[in-house]
Amino acid sequence: MKDFAYAVPATLARAAALWREAPDASRFLAGGTDLLGMMKDFVIQPARVISLAAIPELRGIREEDGALVIGAMTPLGDVIASPLVRARCPALVQAAAGIKSPQLRNMATLGGDLLQRPRCWYFRRGFGLLGMKDGKSLVLDGEDRFHAILGNAGPAKFASPSSIAPALVAAGAELLVWNGEGTRRMAALDLYRTPEREEESEFSLAGGEILVAVRLPAARPASATCEVRQRKSLDWPVAAASACLDLENGRVAGARLVLGQVAPVPWLVDVTSLLAGKPLDEEGAKAAAEAALKDATPLAGNGYKVQVAEVAARRALLAAAGKAG
Amino acid sequence: MSEERGFSRRKFLQGVGAGALAAGAMPDLARGAEAPEDAPDLAGPGPVPVTLDVNGVRTTIEVEPRVTLLDALRSRLDITGAKKVCDHGACGACTVLLDGRPVYACSMLAIAAQGKKIETVESLAPGGELNAVQQAFVAHDGLQCGFCTSGFVLASEALLRQNPRPSHEEVLEALSGNLCRCGSYQGIKKASGAAPGGG
Questions:
Q1: DSSP states of A79-91
Q2: What is the DSSP letter of A180?
Q3: Which residue segments constitute the domains of chain A, with CATH numbers given?
Q4: Is pLDDT of B11 > 60?
Q5: Do B111 and A6 touch (CB under 8 A)?
Q6: Looking at the domain covering B2-121, what would its CATH class be?
Q7: Beta bridge partner(s), residue B175
Q8: How far apart are CA B154 and CA B170, in angstroms?
Q9: pLDDT in tens, B124-170
Q10: How far apart are the CA of B121 and the nearest CA of chain A, in angstroms?
Q11: Does position B10 have pLDDT exceeding 80, yes or no?
Q12: Which of A224, A263, A281, B92 could be a cystine partner for A150, CB 3.0 to 4.6 Å?
């Protein structure tokens, strides 16, 4: 990889100051499992790397005013091991546990997962987020088996790679973001956007902003994440789904379903109207999963992902209701 | 912890005073001494002193911040038990223990491993006598070419320290970050579940 200067600031203010000195050349480093790989491949070549490892506010799992707050630099292994997280949001624990291997979970962080870059092989080979060459999409002309099947009408064909984001979106989590002067809050889904032009980002963070923590305002015990994958480890799922139910006396009062790995952003579908007023059963889960995928627009080589995503969605809904899928 | 992790020439000077410098050429001290008190603690891009605690021995080397822990171990410290295969955190051959937890040394900067206790496979057989996990790999034919073996041994070692009698599923989970291209998985799984006192 290209050489760089390295800093380990102890405060958010210091980190932001270091970034402002060289805004175009700086990258924040979390666990490094994604960023260092891209630097080795010369896809990203920062002249300054600012490690976030020494900033205390970014670490730890705690309860705050009834909400669960998890620092962005908390390793995924700590998220999984936390009884607090397990009790409040099983979908989050299951999503993190799907990230194989133990080595990755010891290194990779919650925030790093949310902000990891797409796995599109054209992007990873230096052809940009939109994978264009000579004004044409390499994805459409090439190998698209793992690309988006939803939200792909524009030039962005990549799939959102985060394992954690669907669980957080389903659970109605908020993100705390340091903007250089203070902390702002946003809904987890608002972190993500679909770029229309190559110079745009897939994230809504402004330059130099730092993801500080994830905040889960309410406990979400009736939640689950299910993945369908080719390889059990050292790979991303083909499709994943997180579901979060509001149950009243065993009947569905609200149902949020979020698909991962299928669109440039985590794909939220409110399936409440399909499921409300009844206990969740196999038939309802199937109908909701089909509805979530009915507008899918698969590319030439990834039609199979529609069925795979449906299976993930159905299983997640049933698991959220405490039923085996 | 931030004191341990943060590197500056000021801290380096303090380190020299404390006799922490075990090896390596003297760096450009004057530049650090002239730096204003509130200057950002930027290290590099040229070589900077990095102190690593590997297998109980603290050594200071001069490396650029871009050097991974794996390259520092293999090329600078001549500790070659951790292997360089994919170099992208996708095979497990470079597995080392960091404060007792298995990590990929290829996906971590050496400068970021300061202040951590690093264990490589060499630490398991200090006198040349194999430890229980290594003996189990021999007994159960848990290897063929051997290139992935140190990674599997350390992943197993980390598991068994936490959980001396792992279930089959726990073994599979603990080994899920390591690949064997020879396909010795049956022997590896037996070895990992069998040592040191497991069933």
A1: HHH-HHHHHH-HH
A2: S
A3: 1-54 (3.30.43.10), 56-115+159-320 (3.30.465.10)
A4: no
A5: yes
A6: alpha beta
A7: none
A8: 15
A9: 998 889 999 999 999 999 999 999 999 999 999 999 999 999 999 99
A10: 16
A11: no
A12: A263
